[in-house]
Structure of WSCD1 protein:
Amino acid sequence: MAKAFFRLQKFLRRTQFLLFFLTAAYLMAGSLLLLQRTRLVIQQGSRGTPANQALPVPDEMTRAGIIDPRSLQSPRPSPRLLVGMDALQEPALDQRHSPHWLLSRNSELRQLRRRWFHHFTSDQEPLQTAGLKAMKHTAEHKGTYMGCFTHDSRERTLKGAVFYDLRKMTVAHCQEACAERAYSYAGLAYGAECYCGNTLPAAASKPEECNSECKGEKGSVCGGVNRLSVYRVEELRAGARRWRNVIYRGCFRAPENLTDTFPASLIQPNLTVEMCSEFCSKKEFPLAVMRGQECYCGYPTGRFPLRDGADGLRCSRTRNASSAAQGKYCLVYQTPVQDTRCTDRKFLSTKSKVFVALSSFPGAGNTWARHLIEHATGYYTGSYYFDGALYNKGFKGEKDHWRSRRTICVKTHESGKTEIEMFDSAILLIRNPYKSLMAEFNRKYAGHLGYATDRNWKSKEWPDFVNSYASWWASHVLEWLKYGKRLLIVHYEDLKQSLIPKLKEMVEFLNVTVTEDRLLCVENNRDGNFKRSGAKQKNFEPFTQEMKDLINRYILTVDEALRGRNFSGLPREYVPR
């Protein structure tokens, strides 16, 4: 008995020593790794940032709301390197806008971005899984529940507008969205997807098969896997002020044969805009075209592209539109119905052989460009980051790994040599730095669709932001020009002004063939869900003369670099204010 006890005691002592040794080794390895990373950041800081230069604020951290830029410190202990200086301070005049300084400074930003991005992705809340067995359709839903129906994403029966929200989708939200767009039915699937239409699905399913809980409303049913919970919302349309989304598109020359051009028509005495728009909405067409007492419904097509508007005097803008000049011209209105000819999207069926980046400085319109590319090509775009707000609104490539090669191109704001050389080609989107800085400042303080307050603009944070981000705007372009293998330069302003021609260039660069009608559909849906509503006018000039001098020098540097690579220079509007 004593011998057995002695053996057990000896074994436990050995095990205890082994555990102690492994723990000590683990701690030592972690300490060495931390010292090595700290040394790397210090070396980069000493090599790239002068003692009086503020560090750029990383885009991903401010987007995620993880940390206030005022609390970020550089790896160096100098208090002057805090983001939040007392004044705009730059290196010597002969160095502050040189490409070498800009590139070295950008490498420091990338190092900080990598560390923070790991923290950002690890903090994302896991999405809840659906599949609840028994839930009730709550009484507060105003629409009439029609039942559970089969849903095929490739051949949808509710063919109208589509919305996604993987965190806040509710039955009421879907119903209101469809009612405002003049649809009669709202259907929910997968707990987070909303579909609108005017025709009730034909294939009914068992009630228990609609078992997905709404992401934004516990205890409520939002369809299921390939199943739709359908509500009739026609009675809600009056309360939704259905005509507020009817938009006057202009006066256009009528095509030679309206009956062949438009698939639906109506002749009605005393025809009004409301009557024509309602008729076309029920037929699920995005355009209502009026000529005298005639109403036509359809889409923008090659026969009727809505590109060259006529003089408004040629058409009557009165409500009854009874005096359109001699029948040669017609009034065109955009109905609340979404043009769905280009809304179908999917992942690539096979891995792409060419790895393409969609690169831009933050605030340069990358999200808008992704919207255009996805609807033009029919394929999702990916992202180097994960933005939950974009994923919730239908950018499903956000959640796909950025190196999966299942997306047509990958969004990135990165600009290091290693990151650039991972891509075979890139669309480099450039926007006026004045507009880019303001757009990114708005996003930083008010999200994708909001505006920073006057208090934000007049605070100390705005000059610090300009001081940090202006150099990043320049270095981003310079590094892509230096290390990019095959580039297509697209200026945001040109894309906005000449959407179809520039979008054709982008699609051809991506080696995708699209039809003219699909491009016209994209033009009809050009704004997407991430466009700020109008330009919020400020009663003061946000840029001081010192800021303008700094930004203008960066503009000249980038313009010279573009011309040196045989690209057209920056648009003339960039240079001076």
